[in-house]
Amino acid sequence: MARKKIALVGAGNIGGTLAHLVALKELGDVVLFDIAEGVPQGKALDIAQSNPVEGVDATMAGGNDYSVIAGADVVIVTAGVPRKPGMSRDDLIGTNAKVMAAVGEGIKTHCPDAFVICITNPLDAMVWVLRELSGLPHTKVVGMAGVLDSARFRTFLAEEFDVSVQDVSAFVLGGHGDTMVPLTRYSTVAGIPLPDLVKMGWTTQEKLDEIVTRTRNGGAEIVGLLKTGSAFYAPAASAIAMAEAYLKDQKRVLPCAAWCDGVFGLDGLYVGVPVVIGANGVEKVVEIEMNADEQAMFDTSVEAVRGLVAASRELMPK
Ligand code: A3D
Fold first, then answer.
1. Of the candidates 144, 163, 184, which is a domain's last residue?
2. How far is CA 64 from CA 24, 42, 67, 178, in A?
């Protein structure tokens, strides 16, 4: 069987890390596309030279013309600009909406059968632009945010409980912004929901509230430390988990920015919800029940996403 082709649009911090992870996990051959001359070519060559050391086989190529992504099975999009300290994700919309429009056209022309994962911020609006301009089915275009936000939540919870990250599962829903909704009732340690762990005395409600706040600000915490850009290792690992679920038909249940039309009371909006990812892309949206508090937080998050989509619509080529 021929190796799969994975196209990475954007060869910056996340793009380079994605390429390295694809090689290490032998998910397929990689092409990197970027407007910066030499950058995708240089990163491709560097990673190709690490493959003999790692004992993995994957070809690595880079280019500045969209034709390099032709026939890709998976496209992961990070093109655009990241945050600097003091910026919110939403401040990026003016630049990144136009970049997404160009990327969407490129995908439409060169690889209309691909499974597309968007990472560029502001995520929920950018995945909408990418879908609109690419014209792909909604089930084949998703946004990565929930896997990362949940991983941040899991990291802090595992530290608090002093247990393996493997035994902590967590759900963060809603938009990828300050209004994201970490769902404590659906987050567990070895199947025990967090509210029960508070009752059992493993932690306090105050500590849990602090962890929820730290999760919401997880991206800003790293931007503040790095000063020159935003997180890239965990975002790349999260997108790779989604790509792997598709390529290997794993049918993983992951929180992603997925198209909600007739579910969660929505009538056509990309927002973070649990979905099943398999060989057909988004195979199912898992419509969990929310209590009144959770629903109120989700509704606030949905309104924030609607505002960003409306702003993006204004920026689209007419
Ligand atoms: P960075 O290292 O700056 O890489 C972005 C790359 O995009 C650069 O190499 C640019 O040259 C390239 N680029 C710019 N315009 C174009 C274009 N028109 N076509 C092709 N390439 C272009 O950023 P990064 O890799 O750290 O982050 C990339 C994006 O991911 C940013 O928008 C971040 O905000 C976003 N991000 C999202 C998350 C989520 O959880 C959703 C997490 C972290 C970062």
1. 144
2. 24, 12, 9, 34
Q: Is the CB of 12 under 6 A from ligand 1?
A: yes
Q: Please indicate, yes or no, whether residues 258 and 270 belong to a single structural domain of this protein.
A: yes
Taking the centre of ligand 1 as the mean of its atom positions, its distance from the CA of residue 119, in whole angstroms, is: 8
Tokens 């035994």 map to which residue? 167
Task: Return the SS3 of 220.
Answer: helix
CA-CA distance, 156 to 214, in Å (whole number)?
8
Catalytic (active site) residue 110: no
Burial (CB count within 10 angstroms: exposed 0-12, middle 13-18, buried 19+), residue 289: exposed
pTM listed for this prediction: 0.97
Look up the domain containing 272 and give its range.
146-315
pLDDT 10s digits, 172-212: 999 888 889 999 999 999 999 999 999 999 999 999 999 99
Looking at the fold, whether 174 and 254 belong to one and the same domain comes out as yes
User: How is residue 34 written in tokens?
Assistant: 């970027």
Any idea how long the chain is?
318
| Last residue of one domain, picked from the residues 123, 144, 165 | 144
ipTM above 0.95, yes or no: yes
